[in-house]
Amino acid sequence: MSNEIAILGAGMHPWGKWGHNFVQYGVAAAREALDDAGIPWKDVSFVSGGATVRCGYPGYVAGATFAQALGWQGAEVNTSYAACASGSQALAAARNKILAGGCDVALVVGADTTPKGFLAPAGGYRPEDPDWVRFYLGITNPTYFALYARRRMDLYGDTLEDFAAVKVKNALVGSKNPRARYKKCFTAEDVAASAIVADPLRLMDICATSDGGAALIVSSVEYAERIGKGDAPRVAAISTVTPTFASGVVEMPDIATDSAAAAGIDAISYRSQLPLKAYEEAGIGPEDVDLAEVYDLSTALELDWIEDLQLAPRGEAAAMLRAGDTTVGGRTPVNASGGLACFGEAVPAQALAQVCELTWQLRGQCGERQVEGARVGITANQGLFGHGSSVIVKR
Amino acid sequence: MSNKPSAPAIEGWFTLDEQPHLIGTRCNACGTYYFPKQDQFCRNPGCDSTEFSEVKLSRTGTLWSYTNACYKPPAPFVAAEPFEPYAIAAVQLEAEQMVVLGQVVEGTGVEALKVGMPMELVLEPLHETDDDVKITWKWQPMSATASEEG
């Protein structure tokens, strides 16, 4: 396929609450990716950074920040901000540059240092800011995850035990991932004993925020073949589509959905739209997927994503989970990395971390959490402001 | 309870009568509703209207989903001391084909709620300031007041 690029290297700084400057994580991830690719830094001619708004000015100009930290060598730079999809958008920029013939080898990198506790909006009286409005009315991020989770329970019969089983499943594989932040093998009893945050979700159903950095070295397929890496995993599709009006699911930070009252307008779920372009671009279907890395901001949300990716019919993800089909060793393992449950979220790095995991899985380098014979993987994530992404990696 | 006068927590977002309504807008060309109000551009991709009318939204709907807040949210939320958990509802309005969030009235917990149940809009205090009691819209199960309203 003409629109594919090769993934020559992947690297991550372990996730945690390290409290260092985010640039440090990005540099560590980039150097690991360069080593993994066997490519000297001076051969990289494009640096595409995933931006972070909370690390100040260096975060807003991520591409240049990382390029300078690694040592100016004249590479062109790009910075992408797309909330949770920042990494995918940075990857898409690198792909476009490569496919347009503008460079052979690109570094894609994202890193974040997160503050402790709730992410709160600026103060004052600012009703024009939806983020201010919802916090003023007492609606936090877990509110939205809990609304989706409760709907699963009342509509599909999902149970608290199902949600706990997602955590237990992810904790088990995360315990075998050296880059994960949380490596403890939690039990269903541990989840049930944790405090309720937003009914029906407990503390252990909801992901934390973390520091971390992830990087990829990508190149044209011709370049990969030239250096004897023609069999490297390839990015087969990147979807960064925005929602289609009218978005029928109430999304953070909004207080209301779009109205679907106008003639010819239907309420549409954004999450289910995201993978469609990816499948189409890669020329494959959900039946071809060997494993998926999805954005489990909550345990219940992992089940939504399984259905959004069409790995299970709507309402049947919990049955798939109960059958063990989403576990490593099962039919279609989901979050073999341990997912956000074991990493916590480092926004501009997270979408890239998902692609790193697929890269290592497709190369068969994941040890005890290896998905045997994996050849096609898909990622999915969604963040604020109509940003989301789905990336397909295949071998 | 306080003897302070009451004032809307957010000015112009809801009516202050006995049977309160959220105040939104509706596109004069395509009929799309907006809450909060939108009066500059229509977000329907098939419509380029810039003409809107202020409208009262339906004050009843069905429960799309619900949850609660067991931990005190950060500012600008103003929490009572000690913090009392409250339920939160997402209510689907039929005519408007939209879902609107809001707290659930005091004294109604998640155990009293079920997806699909009819809900109505009421006004209740959100917090007090030195000068007044800020009131906001909240959702209430309709069965709770069905007898009063007939």
UniProtKB/TrEMBL annotation, chain A:
Residue ranges of domain Thiolase N-terminal in the record: 7-112
Xref: Pfam families: Thiolase_C_1, Thiolase_N
Top-level taxon of origin: Bacteria
UniProt-listed Gene3D superfamilies: 3.40.47.10
GO molecular function terms noted in the UniProt entry: acetyl-CoA C-acyltransferase activity
SUPFAM superfamilies given in the database record: Thiolase-like
Thiolase C-terminal domain segment(s): 277-393
Cross-referenced InterPro entries: Thiolase, Thiolase-like, Thiolase_C_2, Thiolase_N
NCBIfam families: PRK06059.1
Protein name in the entry: Lipid-transfer protein Ltp1 (Thiolase?)
Organism: Parahalioglobus pacificus
From TrEMBL, chain B:
Protein's name in the database: Benzoylsuccinyl-CoA thiolase
InterPro entries: ChsH2_C, ChsH2_Znr, NA-bd_OB-fold, Thioester_dehydratase-like
Domain of life: Bacteria
Residue ranges constituting the ChsH2 C-terminal OB-fold domain according to the UniProt record: 54-123
Pfam families attached to this UniProt entry: OB_ChsH2_C (PF01796), zf-ChsH2 (PF12172)
Lineage of the organism: Bacteria, Pseudomonadati, Pseudomonadota, Gammaproteobacteria, Cellvibrionales
Ranges of residues in domain ChsH2 rubredoxin-like zinc ribbon: 19-52
Native source organism of the sequence: Parahalioglobus pacificus
